[in-house]
């Protein structure tokens, strides 16, 4: 395989997308020696540079590894605050503006591509773009490159999200339950599983007018890459392949290498998974030292991902339920919805004396804003994860054999939670969204159920341990047989290389 080939990647402007793209770039680069060029806006490139440890960031056009190319972007031209180039801390109103504004990256990308092609003497082997960048299909066609869509989510979540946006099935029924095209006839979704913008989407609103054309263009790609593992999502993958009628390569889990190599152990000296620019009130080592004092599987880890927070009354009830349960916990805590997410935690958001009590009786640890999630999940004392069901969090949890409690918030998280609960038996859903009414006693019930050493808790942990083995087998490079994800990435590379000749001939013809 010629190593002087190159691929262009185009991630969406959100941390949860940039990081899997960077991991994918590394995977392909390491397996093939191809140059990978990641194109994004200035601030996102800065973030990627900070996040990458071993990538070569010398200027194009050296041929060594992964390079970054800046695409000019003026946020204020799109009614966005200055320097808004990422979804982080954006309200929904601004988030949709950013989606629409991202389409304006098309011309700068074309411009940059033409320069690169002039220097390289040929188009990239393919352009891999995010599912939100359907416009890149045109760009790829116009420069004679293959187009591949990369869905950073799982197969089931992607399938649900794609079909919901393309069909808006809840619009044609008054019932709370509805069928979804592409799913079995008897399968039902519930209106409460829809995020608020999808609930009101009618095909003419700002969300539909972005999502529908972008996602439907991606159906014209030559194939999809999916950040999942063949063995853990047979149902979702079967549906997705039938619906897309395209090759779907399962190349996950795209996680930091440390997450997959490290055995479930006690204290580790290297703190992995730190997020460029995120600050925590507790030094990462403290979390692990605290966990070292606990017994196996006895601690519940609670986090709502990189950008979510819950409502003030939800926060109060969560705290009450945790205190009433007999279980230990680490809670990554942020100010509730409506307050500065990076601000201080006020006493009135928690039961009186809560923090002092849990500190004294060593029952809980509150970590402001950000925790070393991967290390916590890999620790032997961690027995379950209360999560917003972001796909990265799910992969991280399952790769460590940790079952979950679902509290989905946005995007495709409710469908991820449904799959974990109904298809995999690896989670119990506690509630949904920022505004649901949740009582402390329900928190206590679910926490005790999942953390139980016997019964359901034990069953879930056993199943999660099996999934952990499946995930690790999927990325096995050596030994008796290569894992399914390793084979899939090799097959993907073989396919794009073999199609280059045909594509160039067509283009010329
Ligand atoms: N994360 C972390 N510490 C935290 C919160 C989040 O390391 O306190 C990381 C987590 O390990 C995961 C990512 O942030 O890699 C969150 O991604 P996910 O897809 O779960 O959710 P999102 O933030 O995109 O909603």
Automatic annotation (TrEMBL):
InterPro entries: Glyco_transf_N, UDP_glucos_trans, UDP_glycos_trans_CS. GO terms for molecular function: UDP-glucosyltransferase activity. It comes from the Eukaryota. Keywords: Glycosyltransferase, Transferase. It is an enzyme of class 2 (transferase). CDD domains: GT1_Gtf-like. Its EC number is 2.4.1.-. Residues 7-256 form the Glycosyltransferase N-terminal domain. The keyword Cell inner membrane does not apply. It holds the Pfam family UDPGT. Belongs to the UDP-glycosyltransferase family. This is Glycosyltransferase. It comes from Juglans regia (English walnut).
């Amino acid at each position: 395989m010629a190593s002087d080939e190159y691929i262009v990647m185009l991630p969406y402007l959100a941390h949860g997308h940039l990081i899997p793209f960077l991991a994918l770039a590394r995977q392909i680069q390491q397996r093939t020696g191809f140059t990978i060029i990641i194109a994004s806006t200035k601030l996102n490139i800065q973030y990627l540079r900070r996040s990458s440890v071993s990538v070569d960031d010398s200027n194009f056009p050296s041929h060594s590894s992964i390079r970054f190319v800046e695409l000019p972007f003026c946020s204020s031209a799109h009614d966005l605050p200055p320097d808004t180039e990422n979804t982080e801390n954006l309200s929904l109103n601004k988030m949709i503006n950013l989606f629409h504004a991202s389409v304006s990256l098309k011309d700068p990308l074309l411009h940059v591509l033409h320069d690169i092609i002039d220097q390289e003497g040929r188009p990239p082997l393919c352009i891999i773009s995010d599912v939100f960048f359907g416009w890149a299909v045109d760009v790829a066609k116009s420069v004679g490159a293959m187009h591949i869509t990369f869905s950073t989510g799982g197969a089931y979540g992607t399938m649900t999200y794609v079909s919901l946006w393309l069909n808006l099935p809840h619009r044609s029924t008054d019932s709370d339950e509805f069928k979804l095209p592409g799913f079995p006839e008897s399968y039902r979704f519930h209106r409460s599983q829809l995020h608020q913008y999808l609930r009101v989407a009618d095909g003419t609103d700002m969300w539909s007018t972005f999502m529908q054309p972008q996602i439907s263009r991606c159906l014209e790609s030559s194939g999809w890459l999916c950040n999942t593992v063949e063995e853990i999502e047979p149902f979702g993958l079967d549906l997705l392949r039938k619906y897309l009628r395209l090759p779907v390569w399962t190349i996950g889990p795209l996680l930091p290498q440390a997450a997959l190599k490290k055995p479930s152990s006690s204290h580790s000296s290297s703190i992995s998974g730190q997020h460029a620019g995120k600050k925590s009130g507790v030094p990462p080592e403290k979390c692990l030292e605290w966990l070292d004092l606990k017994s196996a599987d006895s601690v519940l880890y609670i986090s709502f991902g990189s950008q979510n927070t819950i409502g003030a009354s939800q926060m109060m009830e969560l705290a009450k339920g945790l205190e009433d349960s007999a279980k230990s916990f680490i809670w990554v805590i942020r100010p509730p919805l409506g307050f500065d997410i990076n601000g201080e935690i006020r006493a009135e958001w928690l039961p009186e004396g809560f923090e002092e009590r849990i500190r004294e009786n060593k029952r809980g640890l509150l970590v402001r804003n950000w925790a070393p999630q991967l290390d916590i999940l890999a620790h032997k004392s961690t027995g379950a994860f209360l999560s917003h069901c972001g796909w990265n969090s799910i992969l991280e949890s399952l790769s460590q054999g940790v079952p979950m409690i679902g509290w989905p918030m946005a995007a495709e998280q409710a469908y991820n939670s449904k799959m974990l609960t109904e298809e995999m038996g690896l989670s119990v859903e506690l509630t949904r969204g920022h505004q649901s009414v949740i009582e402390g006693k329900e928190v206590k019930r679910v926490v005790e159920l999942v953390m139980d050493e016997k019964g359901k808790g034990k069953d879930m942990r056993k199943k999660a341990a099996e999934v952990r083995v499946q995930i690790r087998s999927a990325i096995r490079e050596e030994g008796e047989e290569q894992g399914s994800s390793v084979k899939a990435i090799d097959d993907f590379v073989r396919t794009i290389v073999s199609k280059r000749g045909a594509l160039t001939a067509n283009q010329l013809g």
